[in-house]
Specification:
Mean pLDDT: 86
Structural class: alpha/beta
Radius of gyration: 17 Å
Strand content: 15-25%
Low-confidence stretches: none
Number of strands: 7
Number of domains: 1
Number of helices: 4
Distance between the termini: 9 Å
Largest sheet: 5 strands, mixed
Shape: globular
Order of helices and strands: HEEEEHHEEHE
């Protein structure tokens, strides 16, 4: 991630102006549930990841679509089509777990710290303006997670 101080003045001003437009959001409602050792966990990332055989994300970064990443996916088969010019991909290129910690999640299951790994995980495109309407896609994704008996999600925002 680039530092604000390292951006040219015009780009820095643009980002600071956008911060003023971020919508106010109410605090999340916390819910109780079983211990983590009994939960089925899915990953959701905004890293713009997809399988090599999947369609890349929209180059404008304006969509709300997502890609499904099966639990058995090999990290070497994942591609990052994140479109932000200010995004440093070197961490992902060195270790996919930086943005999509599927191997770490499987290790936690093996140690019985986490109950189980979901069959499917999901990736959205990051760098999308926060006022973009995600409600329909969020409901769609919630239904998919429910069908997979997921009761906990690790969000990996990029």
């Amino acid at each position: 991630m680039v530092r604000l101080a390292d951006l040219p003045e015009i780009e820095r001003g643009h980002h600071l102006d956008r911060v003023k437009q971020i919508p106010n959001m109410s605090p999340p409602r916390l819910v109780s549930g079983p211990p983590l050792s009994q939960r089925r966990v899915a990953l959701v990332t905004t890293a713009g990841l997809h399988a090599r055989t999947d369609m890349p994300f929209n180059s404008t970064g304006t969509g709300t679509d997502y890609r499904v990443i099966p639990e058995g996916s090999d990290a070497a088969d994942l591609v990052m089509s994140h479109v932000s010019v200010n995004f440093d991909r070197s961490g992902f290129q060195s270790d996919c777990n930086v943005v999509f910690p599927l191997q770490r999640l499987k290790e936690l299951v093996a140690e019985k710290f986490v109950g189980s790994v979901a069959k499917f995980h999901y990736s959205f495109m990051g760098a999308i303006w926060p006022t973009t309407k995600y409600e329909a896609k969020a409901k769609e994704l919630a239904e998919l997670l429910k069908r997979d008996n997921v009761d906990a999600v690790v969000l990996s925002p990029v």
